[in-house]
Write a structure and sequence with these properties.
Order of helices and strands: HEEHEHEEEHH
Mean pLDDT: 90
Radius of gyration: 18 Å
Number of helices: 5
Low-confidence stretches: none
Strand content: 15-25%
Shape: globular
Number of strands: 6
Oligomer: single chain
Amino acid sequence: MTTPDEDRPVRQLRLVVEAEDYEAAVAFYRDVLGLPEQAAFSGGDGARVVILDAGRATLEIANPAQKKMIDDVEVGRQVAPKIRVAFEVDDARATTGRLVSAGAAEVAPPTVTPWESLNSRLDAPAGLHITVFQELRTLEDRRTLDGFGTEADQLPDS
């Protein structure tokens, strides 16, 4: 008998980020944002890495029009680079405040989006542009909204 995970060819998404100020980045993401340390390794010449557990990972692929629309909704202007890291949290307002207090630059305060989440944008350590988001409705509830569902749901009937 196979488990659901055994049927998946990819087991984990790991985002690898080079941080010039390693200690500050680790402190920010591990100690302030609250990502638990899973493992850490060191090597010769001062090489160090820490792997932080960010929970479930997804890969969100957006076309340029969608990226522009998200920036317009969340920030009011184009600010995100091609890659933006998003963290789902239980309380977007409190988390945003903690992250700003720890040195992140708030790009946009928590804003309710048309997809029913509360999203803030920050420029964070290691040069990452991040979103902190809190889901305000369940995935099932959001699927009832116009324009939501799966990619197959979005295709015109033929």
